[in-house]
Amino acid sequence: MVVHKIPLIQRLLNVSLQVKILGLVVSLILLIIVLLTSVFSYMESKEDVEQAEELALQTSKTLSFMPGIQEAFISSSPKNITPIVEQIRDQVNASFIRIVHKNGDIFANPGDIELQGSLDDLYRSRVFGSYYVAHNEEEESNVLKGISPIIIDYGPYNRVVGTVEVAFNVEMIQKEILADIRNLILYSIGVLILGIIGSFMLANSIRKDTLGLEPFQIASLYREREGILQSVKEGIMAIDDNGRVSMINLSAQSLLDVKEDISGKVLSEVIHSPKMLEVLQSNQAETNVEILHHDRNLIVNTQPIYDTDRVVGVVASFRDKTEIKKMVDALSEVKQYSEDLRAQAHEFTNKLYVILGLIQLGKIEEATALIQDEAATQTQHSTLFMSRIQDEKVQAILLGKLAKASEKKIDFVIDSDSSLEHMPGHIDLSPLITILGNLIDNAFDAVLNKERATVTFFVTDFGKDIIFEISDTGDGIKQSIEKSIFMKAFSSKGENRGYGLANVKEEIELMNGWLEYSSEEGRGTIFTVILPKSPVNSEMKKE
Question: Measuring CA to CA, how many Å separate 52 from each of 56, 59, 86, 146, 166?
């Protein structure tokens, strides 16, 4: 046994819809969280540092311009400025604030970091009177400082007498940034959990809509459906609730004479037969409706598609009645030939037994006379068929009916004035069997068990038409049923009968011929069939 291994990638793809949706949603949310967190962290870090730098510089400027600070430098009494500086430091939450005299003396140094570092970064402010921000290390702490000069107005000139440093610990700023990032991550986890719950709900909703089938199962069913629909000979078409063709197979395209795939098109744009449109758009189940469409006699069946109590579409099937008819005719031919051969075999068997009995009784002359009579009858029939009726199809039908009539003790007479050349090509054997077979069989039934049981057959092809005439010596047709004899399923002979004359009339009309009859109660019936020889003449007569 050959074992087919499924590739790893295909096995991974053939997971459940729930797993696919969950994986997709979680991946997207994680990707968004990572991207947003990275961008936010960068922007937050940059913004917090810039705000700290701006606050440090602004605070240092404010202190440098405060009258109390300047008076302390003018009076050389820096001790009374420490409370002011401490208050400002608490308000801005700075790590330390240092006020340094130009000569290097520190007037105030409140803060949580004891500063022992170099005063080199104050050079620009002390010498040039610049306002700026500096980053350096103080007591193993990374700090940023806003540095401003203290400028005293001495009338004709200004003089830098000291500097103000306002510092913020960078590590504290980073802790605040990390706290914001942690809050963002907590919110992101909440969003991820909601996304997982939503993905489960979405997957369950989709599975409900797909009747519990996974996508690969739906794809497999779709491929199988397409294969089945395109392989069946019966035409199938589906129409949605908007009147558009949602599916049509090749057989339906052929039967409806559609040259291309019409899926998605409005039905009324591609089918112009009012009767066909009425059936397909009725939203009701229709069974075995016969419709003539593009010279095809189609049998249409429709079945609406329901979603709860609402009609959401229609499925229609099409069969070519011509093909069905050919199959029925073929079966009828086989049945007819079988019955005729059985009757013929039965008749000749009886005659052979009679001849055998006469020979055994020594009645040689009687046996010889019977053989001669039978030979003369067969010779007469053969001569009549060969000389007057030359069409093999009609000969075959009549020979079978002669044997059947002989078996039923019916006198089946073929009129000696009959004349028939070969039948034209458009008249096939199947319709002849239907027409002549049914009419002759009905005549046999009409004279069965009658004292004078005679059925006469006459045919002539003189002129532009072929005329068949079958007469019998039966009881005739009652006036009360004359209007119903050509209706399907109507019969005076019992149930499951009544299709013969209806089929005869239908076949004759298909060949643009006509059927006449005359009947008299108690004296018999004559049926006359007239078939045009030429299809052109048929169309002219039809017009």
Answer: 6, 10, 18, 9, 10
- Element (H or E) spanning 298, and its range? strand 296-307
**Encoding tokens for residue 412?**
């089946």
Distance CA 280, CA 273 (A): 11
Based on the number of CB atoms within 10 Å of its own CB, is 144 exposed (0-12), middle (13-18) or buried (19 or more)? Answer: buried
Of 196, 204, 181, residue with least CA distance to 28:
196
Q: Name the residue with tokens 């350096």.
A: 136
| Three-class DSSP category at 360 | helix
- What CA dihedral angle connects 123, 127, 133 and 135, to 10 degrees? 0
Pick from 50, 58, 283, 11: which is nearest to 166 by CA?
A: 58
As given in the structure block, the two tokens for residue 167 are 């510092």
| 399/341 Cα distance (integer angstroms) | 10
Per DSSP, the three-state class of 260 is coil
Q: Name which of 431, 433, 434, 473 is nearest 452 in CA terms.
A: 473
- Cα separation, 489 vs 328, whole angstroms: 17
- Nearest residue to 102 via CA among 82, 123, 87, 83: 123
Average pLDDT (36-41) is 80
Side chain identity at residue 375, one-letter code: A
Cβ(180)–Cβ(44) below 8 Å? yes
If DSSP codes are grouped into helix, strand and coil, which group holds residue 232?
coil
What CA–CA distance (Å, rounded) separates 249 from 236? 6
In the predicted structure, residue 346 carries a pLDDT above the cut 70: no
Check residue 441 and give left, alpha or beta (phi > 0: left; psi -120 to 50: alpha).
alpha
Residue range 384-411, pLDDT digits in tens: 566 678 888 888 888 778 878 877 888 8
pTM: predicted TM-score of the whole model, two decimal places: 0.42
The rounded radius of gyration (Å) of the Cα atoms in the chain is 56
How many whole angstroms separate alpha carbon 371 and alpha carbon 362? 15
